[in-house]
Structure formats: structure tokens, C-alpha cells
Structures
1.
Amino acid sequence: MQSLTFAMPNLAAETVVDRDASWVKAAQGGDRDAFGHLVERHQQRVFRLAGRFFRRPEDVEEAAQETFLTAWRKLHTFRAKAPFEHWLTRVCLNSCYMRLRRVKPEYELPAEVPVEAGNVNARLDAERLLARLPPADRFLLLLLHGEGWSVAEIAERTGWSTSNVKVRAFRARLKLRRLVGATP
């Protein structure tokens, strides 16, 4: 006798996407409360992502605020071909990238990067080296190695081709190697 099994759909995930879609549609119609719900739902992710690029809390807050202001102004461009979360992530990445280009931050390694207790100097050297990279290179290396994103994820979220991501990553690592070789 054969047994029949039925796969249950992931209702929780569908509900979240559907809820986002309804809030986006309402916000596109000018409903500020609906946009407020979107901000509440996604603010933790935006702050976490911005925190990977900026260490000072005020810089993280400003980057997050820029992200949500840009999202509000450009909400009419959202076409729902992908989840709202992906579009907002791209807006956040662009905001952080543009902010890095405008302001030369003092870069620190993310707190999650393990450094042995006796190797504090290595951490400081790494921070100084990363700070000397151009913003685009820092940006890409943070996504690849700080956030742990794959090449495909970076390509999807930034709008770059996978080949472009690979070439940029190669060149950024090459610049970093040259800086390491040039350091006394």
C-alpha cells in the first residue's frame, strides 16, 4: 500500500511577503502608516547592514535614516519582481556606498572578527589597511568577507553582473595585498 504525503506550504513566509506587498501598495498610494510598518519590520536588518560599514552609532543611524528616506522617495520605482526586502537591501547598500564615497570614515573591523588577545596590533594594522582602500573596494570586501555574502548574492542585490563582482573582488584583494607588501 502506498502512503501519500502532502507538503504543507510555508504559510509564515508567504504571510510576511504578502503583508509586505500590501504595505508597499498602500505606501505607494501615500499611506505613511503603511510605510511605518515597513520601517518597523525591516529596521533591524537595515541597521545591522549599515553597522557593517560604519562603526560609530551616529553614522549607522544616519545611514539607516538615509536608507528609509530614499526608500520613501523612490518607493514608486519598486516593481515587486523580487521581495521588498531585497529592494530595501539594495537601497541600503547604495546609501552606505554613497556615504562612504562622501565621507572618509575611520574604519574599524567588525566586532565579530576574532583577534587573539596578544594580537591587538594585527587588528589595528588590518583596520589601517582597510581604511586606505577606496570606498568601493572596502564596500565589496565587507560584503564578501564581513557579511559572508556569495558573489551571486552581491550581484543580485547591487545590480552588478557576477563577472563584475568577481573582477572587483579580485582587484580589491590585489590592492590589499599591495598595501600589505608596502607596509613597513
2.
Amino acid sequence: MKVYLDMCAIQRLLDTPSQVRIQLEATAVSIIVSLCKTGNIDLVTSEALVYENERNPLPIRQKLGYSVLAQAKTMISMTLGGEGKSRSVLELWCKALGRFASSAGGSRRGRLSLHVR
């Protein structure tokens, strides 16, 4: 079985277990990581997860992220096709938001614009 954990799930292992939900989620992630180590589950990672982990300002959380991501057997690469789709969705969202602001009686009638690099 292949499993993709987002960075929030991976980092749940270091969260303060102040709520039962957090404790249960951390336990579930711990079990998944253990099953990856034994080869019963194939962990899948992505360039987006690596990028997100690199942006984490806390060294202990970065170290945990790298140690979990290093166990992945499959890497999902970002493609220009996916980037183009994301840009299109964001542009549509900005246009819709601009129409909403105009219809809500906003004093500005300017368009919202999106600049993606």
C-alpha cells in the first residue's frame, strides 16, 4: 500500500499532546512510519513536501521531516502542467473574488490581479 503524509501529519509527532485528537493523530502517524520502516507500507513523498520542510524555521522539525521523507520509495515531481493548472485556478479565484467585492458595494472597482513567478 502506498501512503502520502502531508507535512502537518509528519509534524504531528512533535506537537504537544494537549488534546486527545492530537494524541490519536500522533499515534497513527507513528504507526504509519513504523510500518514504512518494516516495508509493509510504501511512503510517497513529493517535491512540494521537501520544499515545505526546507522552509520550516525550526531545526528539530526539519530534522524530523527529512528523516520521515528519507524513507519514501516514490517521489512525485512537480510538472509545468500542474503549475499551469494551479495558476488557472488561482486566476479564476481572483476574478471571482473581484466580482464579489464589486457586488458587495466596494468603493473600488479595480480588478484583482495575480502575479505568479
3.
Amino acid sequence: MRRAVQAGKVVGTRSPGQPSAAFEQARAREALEREVQRLSARVDELEHERQQLENITAMAAHELLEPLVMTEAYATMVSERAGYGLDLNSRHELDAIIRVSGRVRWLVEALLADARASGRPLELEQVDLSEVIDDRVGVLASEIADRSARLHVDPMPVVRGDRALLSSVFGNLLSNALKYGPRSGGDIWVTAARSGTDWTFAVESLGPAIPEESRDRIFDVWERGSVERRTRGSGLGLTIVRQIVERHGGTVGVTSPRESINRFFFTLPA
């Protein structure tokens, strides 16, 4: 047993061949560095695999979309030309082809939107959200007119973000408000409020209140409530909203401040 002596005092003992504390620390540090390097390499591998999967999803969706569009278009054309010349069973079968083709097309388009929302790099610029909302209202003009909906839009700020993706956020939220709102004469409010370093945006509308226990799950992939199952849609719209907002450094949520009113909100850095 060796004794370390300093200024005439014994400060420690160490058996011959026993590693010093400094040696043990250095060895532990080296092991930790190797583990960090291994985990970092694995993260890079997983990111590469994720990008490959997103690319495959986008390519597959593109390949599927064209025949689906053609099938739906030709079936609609036959239905319009043949009219009541077809027997009842044939008309029902043709309607089923149109309906199923449309349903699958919506799913494929949603997958494409999801791949764009989570995959491509953000193209950041100063975005006037008033212009973005005006554009989306124009796209939804026929649905707004069909439901005699009334839109109330606050003055909107200019934020730094990806114009196309932020347009998709407002488009999905407005479309949801129309889809699940009153069949005629409903009001939709689009609001903006600044708090500190963040803007909070909200789309509020009449509709079946979302139960509190479902408010987190509603943004999950394919999550659709009992009311939604009776309504046309892919079940990906709110998932895409969350992905885009989180990529911009914000958060999303939903509340029901009053019975039969839903308020979908999200934040963005000011």
C-alpha cells in the first residue's frame, strides 16, 4: 500500500496497480465521448432514413394521384353523358366509383401536403398574413357562398415564415370551420393578438364542442372524432397544421370557450 504525503501529512493511499482517480475520470470521459459520437451517428442515420421515407411517400403519392384523378374524371364524364340512360344499379355503381376515387384522392393529396409540411426546408421571408388569408378566402369562395358563412377577420401582422406553408395552416383551419360549422349562416372569426414575443392567431366558429379529453389527440395523425367520421376529409389536416406551426417555432391548441364554439389557435414568433 502506497501513501501520498503532502506537507508531512498523509492525504491518501493507493495500492500498487490501482488506477488513480484522474485516470478513472479520463477513461470515463473517453467512454462518454465515444457514446456521444455513436448516438450522433445514429441520429444522422435516422434523419437520412426519415428523409428517404418522406421522398418515397411524396413520389408514391404523385404516382397514385394521376390515375386517381383520371378515374374520377372519366367516371364523372360517363355519368354526365349517360344520365338516366343507365339502369339504377349501374348508376349506383358509377356513383360508388366516383365517391371512392374522390376519397382516395383526398387521402393522397393529404399525404403530399404532409410530406411538404415536414420535409422540405423552410423558405423564410416576410409574410403579410392579410394577403395570405385573402388568398385562402378566394380559394374557399364557393364553399363560403354555399354555406352563406360570414367571415370576420382582424387586421393581420407581417411575420417571418414560409408563405406557402402558413397559407396551408390558415387554409386547413378555415376549411375545418366551414366543414363542421352550421350548414347555413355561420360566423367564423379569425383573430390575431400579440403577447410579448409571440403572436397568437385563432380561428373560432360554431360547431360541435370538442371534448376536453380529445383536444390533444385531435392533432394526431388520422385522428377523427365521431362527428368528423360523418364528414368528408382525410384526417390529416390538423396534423399538418401542427407540423408547420412547430417548424416555425410555435404551438397549437384548441379550446371550446362556450358550448357549440370551437377555437383553434396557434402561436408564431413576432
